[in-house]
Amino acid sequence: MTRKIIINVFKYLALCVLVVMAIGPLFYMLNTSMQETSLVMGAAEPEYTIFNYIKLITQMPFLRWMLNSLIFAGSVVILIIFIDTLAGYALARYRFAGRGIIFGLILASMMLPMAVLLFPLFFIVLKMGLIDTYPGLILPLLAPPFGIFLMRQFMLTIPLEIIDAAKIDGCSEFGVLYRIIFPLVRPAQAILAIVVFLSTYSNFIWPLIVIKNRDMFTLTLGLARIPTEEIIDWGLVAAGSFLTMVPLIIVFLIFQKQFMEALTRGAVKG
Hints:
This protein is mostly helical. Helix content is 75%, strand content 0%. The protein has a domain at 61-225: MetI-like (MetI-like fold, Orthogonal Bundle), CATH 1.10.3720.10.
């Protein structure tokens, strides 16, 4: 009995340490964002204010940057979910010549780092005249191989009998996708949506390459170019970083149920 109590105490202590490690930086960021830079550096006693948030919104195009980031990430997520679901369904359920080769090429492309693709993607965008545009940001990031692989593997868990029964009842191919496939793969789509939104929303390299107009900056670009004089305005940077995290938290909360369902299903099947 004593041994069990000791084990439980260590478990709770470990959980407390993990919670502090997870929430600590967020609390420090919030604390920093509500102080002027001179106070952040310890020149005086802390005096909390929302001055940095007011300055960020009124003196800088922060809301425009956030809108650009949401359009960028949201469009990529919606299009990727649609495209990768269709691609995964075709690779999982259709029998056609070259299917194995295509899937092998998709797996091979997952090994290519993004840095290798930056120049050819930029060259294509430049030739198409899409610099400083939303299509120039969005189109090169569509149909990532990871999403196709994820959706294909999830499609393989769907019994063929369900699809065959729907077709016998007169359901068309698009009807099968809309009425059966899409509802069944929502957990996988939720995982894909979270992963893609996080990576796209926080993407810095690709917007840095294709965006030159200040009004088209995403949040990552805008925060990196907050004007500084003698010292970095840490309070302003912290305020921008904290507001940047809000959409990420909202997206995770929206898809949390589907995300946990997918993890649970994978654990049960394992």
